[in-house]
Specification:
Number of domains: 2
Strand content: 15-25%
Shape: globular
Structural class: alpha/beta
């Protein structure tokens, strides 16, 4: 029996559709079947890298395949993020990224080609507060004295960060916005030269990731004026939060790390990765490793998509206020 050509074409398309729908569960059942690459957009040794390596060990245990960390440094994490945005959406190339490359870079640098929509958010891994510090020679011991000094001497003082458009830079500008003070931003090429200048008395104030500054705070070489999140960190309950100062009560910014995949990850693959991440966040061993880096793991899974919307809106407000461009 012969069918009309048009009918044959429709039948072929229908059969292709059935084959594709049948293949989807098989694909999900077989995932993962080979090593997974975790891209980290920074050199080894930093907080994002340490987070990625600790996460990789846990995911490997839970997914049953090797998880390999691939450090692709450059452009404040944006080069690594671009690689993941361009990757096939099969769950084998993922990003352990910080807020710099996920939510801030595109706001301050028009040359960044990817958008948040080019990723599938999987979940928040951990967060870490930043900390405002002073050189002992600055003569201030808390946030109240810091604000009084700046208001008495507008434009006289400077603060350093690890670079233009970083979360450290945005924290300094948020501080200026909320405190109604002015100080000049001095961007450094990373934390090491900023540390050297502050310890040498060449700059009075600096914004650091807590883990970078904590040894110097403990030794008395830096004065902690306050951490930058809304409440005191569970890691350092002895250090005040800037939000405890009335003029800075809306101060809430830090650095966070999230697991992201390329856009359009298949739903079964996304569900498998979310489950593995949630199990990891409940692991006492993983939480202990994160605490060793001054990072805090969320106590319960959160709505990562809503979180990203809220965080990006916060950063956009600061960028527009300070007219930050890179």
């Amino acid at each position: 029996m012969r069918f009309p050509r048009a009918f044959s074409s429709c039948l072929a398309l229908a059969l292709c559709g059935l084959a594709a729908s049948a293949a989807a569960p098989a694909f999900a059942d077989g995932y993962p079947s080979k090593p997974i690459t975790l891209v980290v957009g920074y050199p080894p040794g930093g907080s994002t890298d340490l987070t990625g390596r600790a996460l990789g060990v846990e995911l490997s245990h839970r997914l049953g395949v090797p998880v390999i960390v691939d450090n692709i440094g450059g452009a404040g994490g944006a080069i690594g993020a671009q690689k993941v945005a361009n990757a096939a959406p099969d769950g084998y190339t993922l990003l352990v990224g910080a807020n710099n490359e996920i939510a801030i870079s595109k706001l301050v640098n028009a040359s960044v080609r990817y958008e948040q929509k080019d990723f599938t958010p999987i979940g928040l891994i951990a967060s870490q507060p930043l900390v405002l510090v002073a050189a002992p020679s600055a003569g201030v011991k808390n946030a109240g004295e810091f604000l009084a000094l700046l208001k008495k001497n507008p434009g006289k003082y400077s603060y350093g960060s690890s670079g233009v458009g970083t979360s450290l830079h945005l924290a300094g500008e948020m501080l200026k916005q909320q405190g109604g003070v002015f100080m000049t931003h001095v961007p450094y090429r990373g934390v090491a030269p900023l540390t050297n200048d502050l310890l040498g008395g060449n700059i009075d104030f600096g914004v650091f990731v807590l883990s970078s500054a904590l040894p110097y705070i403990r030794s008395g070489k830096m004065v902690a004026l306050g951490t930058t999140e809304a409440k005191r960190s569970a890691i350092t309950p002895d250090l005040p939060a800037l939000g405890e100062t009335p003029a800075l009560q809306r101060m809430d910014i830090g650095v966070w790390f999230a697991l992201m995949g390329p856009a359009k990850l298949p739903a079964p693959v996304l569900a498998r990765l979310k489950k593995a991440l949630e199990e990891t966040l409940q692991s006492p061993d993983f939480r202990k490793k994160m605490e060793a880096t001054s990072s805090v793991v969320p106590l319960a899974p959160l709505d990562i998509e809503r979180f990203l919307v809220t965080e990006t809106a916060k950063y956009r407000n600061i960028v527009q206020f300070a007219n930050i461009k890179e």
